[in-house]
Specification:
Blueprint (H helix, E strand, L loop, with lengths): L1 H8 L2 H26 L7 H23 L1 H33 L4 H24 L15 E2 L12 H8 L2 E2 H19 L1 H11 L1 H6 L4 H27 L11 H11 L4 H21 L7 H35 L5 H33 L7 H27 L2 H5 L1 H20 L5 H26 L10
Antiparallel strand pairs: 1-2
Length: 469
């Protein structure tokens, strides 16, 4: 069973599922990015997505009664899309009104929208269907799916794989990834984008040069509502064909983290969203194993916490490197310290993976019956726990102070090689004998360390200042 899961991960079907589950994260993430760049972060994305998802389903279903069955099927999805997004935008503008005109706290107002979205959708759903769980009794419709030309399969080598990944994807998925380029162009290539960034960085200075600050923030919150609406529509009319109670399952909150992890850029936000989509799709895949169902459900949220911790640690390391740069002055070696920072990030990632190992081992000790019994679960859990604790302890010293990587280069190489070698070896043991898998893992582990900057550490030995001591 485990081998089947691994083989399924390295397939076109798995990549296609990543795109599908990334869509409802990426769309609201772009909305969060826009509002954040304008200085009015919208944490009500979860509620806006629920409102849009429910509104879209209701209007698509009733369109068949209003316009007739045949015409309703054609018009219904687009009417649902329009009304769902419109409802989300209206709620976002109400948030803007309370914050910008009535001077209400934007965080508390957005939280109210989240509560309202969760409660109001259930209340109205019960009035319309008599069910508090879902709208299965409504004949709701789905957004169109894009079918690729069949000749793409005939392209040598890559044609069948590309066809398997991109064929039959919802139009909302295509929209999401196209919007990354559109948002990037708007932010960096248009006067509105310049105004948006200026307002977010210093609203007083922007207003002093004639930029209409309040108008820009209204538009930014409206756009965040639009993108949240798109994400909600995908949940109920692309991902599924019905509305379920609280079906967004925290995606609106995850969308608040992705712009930070992506460096507050559209492309970075897209990449971060795909990473979260990968973990979400992975959770679905490993759910077929003989393990408690709650364990794979934890994966996306553990990944979110890990990513935020890595972001915070990287921010601290950036500040530390800047301090070293100021202390060394003209003697500061930019290439060298960039390599040190990248390798410190590698140690962070290895430590975070080990923390997942600790969580898994605790789960196996706590619920051994979900892992085929105590006789199998306990020994495996003990091995995972020991390895994870050793990896955590050995990598920790390279994270607390960025200059430790520079001071103890050989130790860094050894720790990174062995830690990454263990993880990669566990994968390659599916295809090779244990000794061969171990050697391959160690070789690839050292290669990763070397390419991320290890070579720079061996070739350069800049002066260590008192600030680095």
């Amino acid at each position: 069973m485990f081998e089947n899961v691994i083989q399924g991960i390295f397939s076109a079907a798995f990549l296609a599922s990543i795109l599908r589950v990334t869509t409802p994260i990426l769309l609201p993430s772009l909305g969060a990015l826009i509002s954040d760049r304008a200085g009015v972060i919208n944490i009500g994305l979860e509620g806006l997505m629920l409102i849009s998802a429910f509104t879209g389903v209701v209007f698509s279903a009733y369109a068949q009664n209003w316009f007739g069955a045949e015409t309703g099927v054609l018009i219904g999805p687009w009417l649902g899309l329009f009304m769902g997004v419109l409802a989300s935008v209206v709620m976002a503008l109400i948030l803007a009104f309370f914050h910008l005109e009535l001077k209400g706290d934007i965080i508390l107002s957005a939280l109210a929208i989240n509560f309202f979205g969760s409660a109001a959708t259930v209340a109205i759903m019960f009035e319309l269907t008599g069910d508090r769980g879902n709208t299965s009794t409504l004949a709701s419709l789905q957004m169109p799916f894009i079918q690729l030309p069949i000749f793409i399969q005939d392209i040598p080598i890559v044609g069948e794989f590309i066809y398997g990944v991109f064929n039959n994807q919802s139009i909302m998925t295509w929209l999401a990834f196209i919007m990354v380029g559109v948002v990037s162009y708007v932010i960096y290539r248009t006067p509105f984008g310049m105004h948006l960034r200026a307002v977010g960085e210093n609203p007083a200075a922007a207003e002093s040069v004639g930029i209409p600050v309040k108008r820009v923030q209204y538009i930014a919150l409206g756009l965040s509502g639009m993108f949240a609406g798109f994400g909600g529509i995908h949940m109920s009319m692309g991902y599924l064909s019905l509305f379920q109670r609280d079906m967004t399952a925290g995606r609106g909150f995850i969308a608040l983290a992705t712009p930070l992890l992506g460096g507050n850029t559209p492309v970075g936000t897209g990449i971060a969203s795909v990473v979260f989509g990968f973990f979400d799709a992975l959770a679905i895949r490993i759910g077929s194993l003989a393990i408690p169902a709650q364990l794979p459900q934890m994966v996306p949220y553990i990944a979110t916490v890990m990513a935020l911790v890595i972001y915070a640690l990287q921010a601290q390391l950036t500040i530390r490197v800047r301090a070293l740069r100021a202390a060394e002055g003209e003697g500061f070696d930019r290439v060298y310290w960039r390599a040190v920072q990248q390798l410190s990030l590698l140690h962070m990632v290895l430590l975070m993976i080990a923390i997942i190992g600790v969580i898994i081992s605790i789960s196996m000790f706590a619920a051994p019956n979900g892992f085929q019994g105590a006789e199998i679960a306990y020994p495996i859990a003990a091995v995972i726990a020991v390895i994870s604790i050793v990896v955590i302890g050995s990598n920790l010293m390279f994270i607390t102070k960025v200059e430790q990587v520079a001071r103890w280069t050989i130790q860094s190489a050894g720790v990174a090689t062995i830690s990454l070698g263990i993880y990669l070896g566990l994968f390659f043991v599916l295809f090779f004998p244990i000794p061969v898998a171990t050697i391959i893992g160690l070789i690839l582990g050292f290669a990763a360390w070397f390419m991320l900057g290890g070579g720079s550490l061996f070739n350069r030995t800049p002066r260590m200042t008192e600030a680095a001591a």
